[in-house]
Amino acid sequence: MRIALIALLVWLPLSAAAVADEPLSPYQWQQAQKVAFDKSEKVYADALKRNGLLAQFKAMRDAYRADNNKAFRIVFGQYLSWYQTFVGDYPGAHASYSIRQLAAQDDAPSLLTSGEQAKPALDAIADLAKGRNAIFFNEAHNVPITRTLTVQLLSRLRAEGFTYFAAETLYESDPDLQKRGYPIPKSGFYTMEPIAAEMVRSAIKLGFKIVAYESEKPGNGDVREYDQAKNLYERVFKNDPAARAVVNAGYAHIQENGRYLGGSSMAQHFRKLSGIDPLTIEQTMLIEHPPGTENHPYYRAVIAALHPTAPIVFEDKDGTPWSLKPKAYDVSVFFPPDQLRDDRPTWLELGGLRKSYFVSGSLCQDDYPCLIEARYANEGEDAIPADRLVLDPVKSAQSDDKRLFQGRPQTHANLYLRPGAYRLTATNNDNRVLFRQNIVVDAKR
Asked: Largest CB tally within 10 Å, which of 66, 102, 162, 307?
């Protein structure tokens, strides 16, 4: 896994040092981050030597707890948050790493005073995609609610005539992905997380041709952005000018204007290479942030006024979508605040595509912590599960910093699964299987 390439998109500015309560100059703060980055890489490399996902995550969690240095906490918090999503600790992942969303000069005027109307994002984006050759969705990699809308839209976009699906950090080193029909650990990095894996799996089942466009060249910044765009263009549109593609990427890789990482974004390079103007869907800014960071003022106002229970967008009377950053993105999506049930967000239902399935700590055979995974019955043992979570009975952890995995005081939870047959397993910290069972999730539940 090439985590070093994707670890820090930009160095955090000095304002982050103020949050860390360290009187550092901008140069000192950048140097502190470089030291933290090097240590993070080493901790991650050492963790990968552990046997199994649970042991790897535990090593990373323990390293985070053992070092109170603020720069390390900020930098390594991003690494830890990715692994928290891998093991199904979604609230913990967002608490470990969150980017504040403050009001800015390039924000559009408030939509609550300009006459736009709220619409379900599923319907609005499906309509906006008609006649477009490319639609780019972005995501916050450690906040998988920003993947859920894309998963739900895939069937509508396929019916509209889109035929290619491309996702960041899918690797060409897994040439059998399309034929196999599901991702495995070597398929990519973010596809280790079950919702990201479900996105790829769903696209394959719907008949999309999967495209790995991640750069394999050394270097970051503009080198990576250009190479991603070049791969996307050459592997889709160069030989199929009439192609229609759904593209998933992180954060500002899809911005259409402005400087990005000292150069241009992937989307800007793509437009120059292909001549195609993609429909860009921004999904990372108008989401609920954990305590200690900040929601955008527009987000607070919209949630307070409308109380949405599903993603929404806004359009004017002519059907023109509203964007928080109109020079950079075509559409902005508002996601509702998380609703938790047994410490798991209910957006895991994927808009009704999946049902909750209760699991008890009895599966763990009193060997805690244990990792509970549900794999589709027709997929291999190396398949990324449809869902996974960790159970542990520790009751003493009170703060986010001291949470043990999900930190729940009870030993039960809910998996979220599509109707169908699955293999349910429980494994311990030594990666030993404690329990196996075939289960069926009934569509009528």
From this structure: 162
Query: Which tens digits make up the pLDDT trace of 146-161?
Result: 999 999 999 999 999 9
Question: Rounded CA gap, 322 and 116, in Å?
Answer: 8
Mean pLDDT within 169-174: 90
Rg of the chain on CA atoms, in Å: 21
From residue 161, give the alpha-carbon distance in Å to each of 158, 253, 409.
5, 24, 48
Residue type, 180: R
Give residues with Cβ within 8 angstroms of 310, minimum separation 6: 120, 121, 122, 336, 351
Place of tokens 């929404």: 312
Biggest distance spanned by C-alpha atoms of the chain: 60
CA distances for 77 relative to 92, 93, 196, angstroms: 10, 9, 20
- Report how far residue 242's alpha carbon sits from residue 170's, in angstroms, rounded to the nearest whole number: 23
Share of the chain above pLDDT 70, in %: 91
Identify the CATH number of the domain defined by range 342-441.
2.60.40
Q: Does domain 111-332 have CATH number 3.40.50?
A: yes
Q: How far apart are CA 271 and CA 291, in angstroms?
A: 38
Q: What is the phi/psi pair of residue 97, to 5°? A: -150, 120
Whether pTM > 0.90 for this model: the answer is yes
* Average confidence (pLDDT) over 239-256: 96
